[in-house]
Design goal:
Elements (H helix, E strand, L loop, with lengths): L1 H9 L13 E2 L8 E7 L4 H11 L2 E10 L2 E8 L4 E7 L12 E9 L5 H18 L7
Antiparallel strand pairs: 1-2, 2-6, 3-4, 4-5, 5-6
Helix pairs in contact: 2-3
């Protein structure tokens, strides 16, 4: 499902320059999984996940799957609920470390989903990836 969304985003003109916003949530507040889109630096994903997980009361259990233009993390909530974070882009895999790329993020927490919890994590990731776009570090 997410791969199709990433392809759709690739043609929507999301390759915006730095400083043009924090991305956006794509799902309604009560929907699960929660999806969002942002333009950011692919190389910043690991650091952004680490920072935002701790701010959102989830833990990254590590990467469970990686393919060109897609990465999936196992996550666990503070209440021991398992979930995932998947990030995908339709950008050329050869350019992922060179330029900011449009990305679609999808988060699911727990067997039946926890939309408020997921939304908090996605929002934090969107903000963090936007702040890191085009810079070496951000507060």
């Amino acid at each position: 499902m997410l791969a199709g969304a990433a392809l759709a985003v690739g043609g929507c003109g999301l390759g915006a320059p730095a400083g043009t916003g924090d991305g956006r949530i794509l799902t309604a507040p009560d929907e699960s999984p929660t999806r969002g889109e942002v333009t950011g630096d692919w190389e910043d994903l690991g650091a952004a996940v680490w920072v935002c997980a701790s701010q959102s009361e989830v833990a990254s259990m590590g990467v469970t799957d990686r393919a060109p233009g897609r990465v999936r993390y196992a996550i666990r909530s503070a209440m021991e609920e398992e979930g995932y974070l998947e990030i995908a882009t339709a950008a050329d895999p050869g350019s992922l470390d060179e330029v900011a790329v449009p990305m679609v993020l999808e988060v699911r927490v727990g067997r039946f989903g926890r939309p408020a919890h997921e939304r908090r994590f996605v929002s934090a990731l969107l903000r963090r990836l936007s702040r890191l776009r085009g810079v070496e570090y951000a507060r």
